[in-house]
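Milestone 3.1: sequence recovery, worked example.
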């Protein structure tokens, strides 16, 4: 028991969660999140009832309950993508604006622990929201025939996505002096990872895979870039787990990574490494010695 008590919790996480839990803001955020999920749930349920009007079979109705999971899951991912930058945009820049950053840097907490704690406090908050919506998604698993392992796997991938999004937000907050600038930069990096990363793949696809070996080599390299893209990862996840189709293998059967399970594993590793990169850069940004070097230059 004494050893358990001696386990240290990141002081930044402890402070931020303590402050947020004492405020009604977290309760209202949780209420709004569950309300959105409940609204989406009722819309899907209404659509299924309309479908049942044309199909008298109750079995078919129950089979359609599997729709709840992807709809609610995608809604959660969109909320994560929007909420995490808002939570982390002021994590460092807000401290700088309030004039408390210098005091924070004089503590014994390392620079990396500071940015890691800021990120994890936001990730923990958003994971509380996801866990709160499990009862709604559970309908798909109770009557829709989906394995509970799929729900656990989704929560894990959502956690990885939240870490990546949080690291981007903390880096932008450390880089920018203003919170609004940090928020805009976060969404800009989002676009580069989730949108602009498709450009090499599109260019390689237009070049054609039936041409010389160089075209196929370019396609492989372009597709490897998609390992950083959470959109591709979740698309492969939902396709594989809900329909048992291997979209990675079906579309890119000539690429050596033509297996969705391998792809998901590698994408998790790559995205966590990318998150570590952003955290390292954020820690370097808040280092006063680096700021002095920049001023001298």
């Amino acid at each position: 028991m004494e050893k358990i008590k001696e386990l240290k919790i990141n002081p930044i996480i402890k402070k931020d969660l303590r402050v947020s839990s004492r405020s009604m803001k977290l309760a209202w955020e949780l209420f709004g999140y569950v309300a959105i999920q409940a609204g989406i749930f009722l819309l899907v349920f209404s659509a299924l009832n309309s479908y049942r009007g044309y199909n008298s079979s109750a079995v078919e109705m129950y089979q359609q309950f599997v729709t709840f999971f992807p709809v609610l899951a995608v809604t959660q991912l969109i909320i994560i993508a929007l909420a995490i930058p808002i939570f982390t945009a002021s994590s460092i820049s807000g401290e700088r604006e309030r004039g408390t950053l210098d005091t924070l840097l004089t503590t014994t907490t390392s620079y990396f622990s500071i940015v890691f704690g800021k990120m994890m406090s936001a990730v923990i908050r958003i994971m509380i929201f996801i866990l709160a919506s499990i009862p709604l998604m559970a309908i798909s698993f109770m009557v829709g025939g989906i394995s509970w392992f799929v729900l656990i796997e989704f929560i894990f991938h959502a956690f990885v996505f939240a870490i990546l999004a949080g690291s981007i937000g903390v880096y932008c907050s450390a880089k920018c002096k203003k919170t609004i600038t940090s928020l805009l930069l976060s969404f800009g990096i989002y676009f580069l990872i989730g949108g602009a990363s498709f450009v090499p793949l599109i260019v390689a696809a237009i070049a054609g895979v039936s041409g010389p070996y160089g075209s196929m080599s370019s396609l492989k390299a372009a597709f490897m870039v998609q390992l950083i893209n959470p959109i591709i990862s979740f698309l492969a996840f939902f396709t594989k787990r809900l329909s048992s189709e291997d979209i990675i293998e079906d579309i890119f059967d000539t690429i050596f990574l033509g297996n969705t399970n391998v792809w998901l594993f590698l994408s998790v590793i790559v995205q966590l490494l990318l998150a570590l990169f952003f955290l390292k850069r954020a820690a370097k940004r808040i280092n006063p010695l680096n700021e002095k070097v920049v001023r001298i230059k």
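The chain is about 80% helix and 0% strand. The chain has a mean pLDDT of 76.
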